[in-house]
Write a structure and sequence with these properties.
The chain is mostly helical and 124 residues long. Helices cover 69% and strands 0% of the residues. It is built from 7 helices and no strands.
Length: 124
């Protein structure tokens, strides 16, 4: 049985072979196991799963951000949170701000390339 642990990179092929709902459930179970107090565990688990999907699919900006954050001393779980926070801000912006022409995901990719341990810590 697959057991999710954000401190370890899941095998990309195995991760992507699991259906999306089950991936989210594995992440939710992990956070229940560690007794994480979260305002919305389902949203948190979905963000985790999305970041893991991007990494497993080889999104270059996500991979670079993870490597940079790990190199700056952040553990993998917190690095997933940092990338997830950039993703969630991007989703909020897409939903609440007028969008210009071009690729709607371009601002997210730029933000990932700017993400550092220091900028994430300052964000809050």
């Amino acid at each position: 049985m697959f057991k999710y642990d954000p401190e370890h990179n899941p095998d990309p092929a195995k991760w992507l072979a699991i259906d999306e709902g089950t991936r989210i459930e594995f992440v939710r179970r992990y956070h229940r196991r560690i007794r994480a107090e979260l305002p919305n565990i389902r949203a948190h688990a979905a963000a985790h799963a999305i970041v893991e999907n991007q990494l497993a699919e080889g999104l270059p900006e996500a991979k670079r951000a993870l490597e940079r954050l790990l190199g700056e001393g952040i553990d993998r779980h917190d690095a997933i949170h940092a990338i997830g926070s950039v993703f969630m801000e991007h989703i909020w912006n897409l939903s609440n701000k007028p969008q210009g022409p071009g690729d709607p995901n371009a601002p997210y990719l730029v933000a990932l390339d700017k993400l550092t341990a220091d900028s994430w810590r300052r964000s809050g």
